[in-house]
Amino acid sequence: MSLSGKVALVTGGSRGIGFATAKILSDNGASVAITGKDPDRLEESATKISNSFAIVADIRNSDQVKNAIEKTIEKFGRLDILVNNAGIFPRIKQLHEIEEDEWDEVLDVNLTGQFRVTKEAIPHLQKTSGSIINISSDAGLKAYQGFNADAYSATKAALIVLTKCWALEYSKDKIRVNCICPGVVDTDMTKPFVKTQKDRDFMDAEHPLGRMGKPEEVAKAVLYFASDDASWTTGAILAVDGGESTK
């Protein structure tokens, strides 16, 4: 139980990568707070994660973010691990077809939302020499022909650079900041793109290892960064993508 006594906050923790992450952190001894916008789904997910605490919060709302951090501290007394996982994926469109409000929404959730949560968490992480793990994407590492999700790619690339900025900014506090870049993972977010077996075969073939990823495979990478096994690792960018970004 490598995380015994530690407290983690996982944004977007009610499903997909966030849920798998919250569960593996809990299974390894951490107390875990999970956030999400859907109270029913959030509570249902919390029942499947031992020693967890569900907090309804939209990371687009500063007051709700502050409340989530405060409730975590009230419940568990400290904060050691922050996983910036919450995010959205836009409709696939070429740049000239994107409406400005669509662009703004993706930036507000995927980039400014991470800023809001991290800003509120930092004073508590300074007390524990904590760990921040940002969930980016291999779409932040390189451009993909026909991907056409420019706002998403831009936010994920920005999060990679912010990871390095925060790693340097808070190294004096011994806060470690690392980033994971998943490829296509089999979650609710990717289901609209794999409606048929043909779609799935195509998506599997895009990854050199021959298949899409599983949420638990990304969660295991989070566990490493969160644990003392990564005590001398900060500013690292890890692709967990079946080799997709190496092509």
UniProtKB/TrEMBL annotation:
This is 3-oxoacyl-[acyl-carrier-protein] reductase FabG. Its EC number is 1.1.1.100. Belongs to the short-chain dehydrogenases/reductases (SDR) family. Keywords: Oxidoreductase. NCBIfam families: PRK07231.1, PRK12826.1-2. One of its GO terms (molecular function) is 3-oxoacyl-[acyl-carrier-protein] reductase (NADPH) activity. Pfam families: adh_short_C2. It comes from the Archaea. The keyword Oxidoreductase applies. It comes from Nitrosopumilus piranensis.
